User: Fold this.
Amino acid sequence: MDDRVLGGALLKLARGAIELRFGRDAPDVPDHPQLDAPGATFVTLRCDGDLRGCIGTLVPVRPLRQDVTRNALNAAFADPRFPPLDAADLASLEVEVSLLGSPTPIHCSDEPELLAQLRPGIDGLVLSYGEHRSTFLPQVWESLSEPREFVRELKRKAGLPADFWHAAIEVSRYTVDKWTEREHRFDSAEASTASLAGRSPR
Assistant:
């Protein structure tokens, strides 16, 4: 089984958990051995293209199938930035699941040294200082493409001033495998069209 099978399973688990709250039937989920291994996910929800919730886990604390289900429910009904989803939102809902790799520390003595090590579009970041902590998924680079801006907004998210720096700041990076329902719908439609035409999809 390849990563697309895993991605499809995670997407179905996430949407299924949300739709079950509205009385819909649970979907058939493809099996994948990684679903029963510990894993850390973020679930991002959009309605009509607008962010509607994003909740996740930074380190593996439970089996992957449980983690994505719990994060989907929290993104749908417990993200403090948004009201809970209602049944009318389901028609325009799009689910995205990110599977996080293990965080690795970035050793830096000051902000310029940190900025020089960043890989825009690749790195997700976790920034910690005392009780302050925040993260940005790699997808955030799409709207904050400059490293300096990325880090300044990450500090703001943690409740710190944008120009704050201290030797005790800790920063880690991680990468993600990401799947969206839109991509999976496209692949399914392309495969069906190719089958009807008697050819293999690209």
The CA atoms of residues 81 and 170 lie 26 Å apart.
